[in-house]
UniProtKB/TrEMBL annotation:
Transmembrane segments: none annotated. This is HTH cro/C1-type domain-containing protein. GO terms for molecular function: DNA binding. Residues 8-62 form the HTH cro/C1-type domain.
Amino acid sequence: MNIDHTTVRRLRAVYRLSLAEMAVLLGVSESHLWRVEKGERAINDTMRRNCIEEFELSAGKLERLLAIYDETQLALTATRHVGNRHTSCG
């Protein structure tokens, strides 16, 4: 199961956790987690294990959660585009 910095950020978004809440779950400081999410620090084995345990992840569950993230992002993008449409009165 591949859990990298992008996966951590996406899981936090799906579960709607603050940086502080996610940091507690993963056993790291907020600043460390921020750097991990930005790709400035590598996710270590302890963080990866804590992520799997705290979210009770299996390969299938992780795949579903990431699909939820993708669907949410697509919906948000579509909403933004609809909101930016201009109509002209002729």
